[in-house]
Design goal:
Length: 325
């Protein structure tokens, strides 16, 4: 059986399965976090852009800390720096705002959410009149150096990346005093990220899968599109093992060494998603899962370029999906 934890290059132990909070409304997230903590989760993944960190903080206040059921040191808390806060002068204030909202003295992990910077300011998605994004000419290497100061000051235990490709990871490694301990990316059976996973492994960077179940509730999904959870191959394995499709997918990730942060606001699914350490996929099951890979991204909405929808932003060289991985 796989371990429930992975030891990061910093020496910290991170739970292999955590609760994702993307697209969980402020009204839902407090109960979701409470349910997760009571179900045994000790890894909560947050981000400033999700707009619900204050509500996550309310849940933590009920369960975590002196006199509560969960000591702070048993909890692994992650958050992310948003694209409008990439300027070195904005990094620490953004982190402190997240800490204030979560009611924490420190984060276990702080990630650069994306490699490209948006225009500075308080408008989260600054856009031009034609609907395209307004970017800032700030290199992620300069942002990284400012994030390293957060480690030095004790505001965060470790720092990492999100949505970075191999070339961009190498850029960071070329200047890093505090090396990234993780890279969090979209990863599921349709997008196995095998090459990126190998590149991260060579550099002692742990891969974390967001949307590991294929983000079935994403608003831009085609109405007639089959959900990953309904894929016949996955259903076949799930039926054989008497497990749910979600458990089979998460077990596949954990068994190959990829941490996961599935999101749900439903108590039954939250409890189900962490129950993946009491069974093992066979070699045959693994082959079935691997056969599904088609490098299909599900979580990045199409961008209008010259009147046509594309799955990459041709106007920004930092957009991570220009490269193969």
């Amino acid at each position: 059986m796989s371990s429930t934890f992975v030891t990061l290059s910093s020496g910290m132990k991170m739970p292999m399965v955590g609760l994702g909070t993307w697209k969980t409304t402020p009204e839902q997230v407090r109960e979701a976090v409470l349910c997760a903590l009571d179900a045994g989760y000790r890894h909560i993944d947050c981000a400033a852009i999700y707009g619900n960190e204050k509500d996550v903080g309310e849940a933590l206040k009920e369960r975590v800390g002196p006199g509560k059921s969960i000591p702070r040191e048993e909890l692994f808390m992650t958050s992310k720096l948003w694209n409008t806060k990439h300027h070195p002068d904005d990094v620490e204030p953004a982190c402190r705002k997240t800490l204030e909202d979560l009611g924490l003295a420190y984060l276990d992990l702080y990630l650069m959410h994306w490699p490209m910077a948006f225009e500075r300011g308080n408008l989260e998605m600054p856009k031009n009149d034609d609907g395209t994004m307004r970017y800032a000419d700030i290199h992620y290497k300069d942002t990284w150096r400012a994030m390293e100061n957060l480690v030095t000051k004790g505001l965060v235990k470790a720092i990492g990346l999100s949505n970075f490709n191999a070339r961009q990871i190498d850029d960071i490694l070329s200047v890093a005093k505090h090396k990234p301990v993780v890279n969090q990316v979209e990863c599921h059976p349709y997008l196995a990220q095998k090459e990126l996973m190998a590149h991260c492994s060579r550099n002692r960077i742990q891969l974390i899968a967001y949307s590991p179940l294929g983000a079935p509730s994403r608003p831009w999904a085609c109405p007639d599109e089959r959900s990953l959870l309904d894929d016949p191959q996955i259903l076949n394995v799930a039926e054989k093992l008497k497990k749910t499709p979600a458990q089979v997918i998460l077990r596949w990730q954990v068994q190959r060494g990829v941490a996961c942060i599935p999101k749900s606001a439903k108590p039954s699914r939250i409890k189900e998603n962490i129950q993946v350490f009491d069974f093992t996929l066979s070699d045959e099951d693994i082959k079935k899962m691997e056969s599904l890979n088609c490098n299909k991204r599900l979580t990045v909405p199409p961008i209008e370029v010259n009147g046509q929808s594309e799955w990459r932003d041709a106007k920004n060289p930092f957009f991570p999906f220009h490269d193969t991985y």
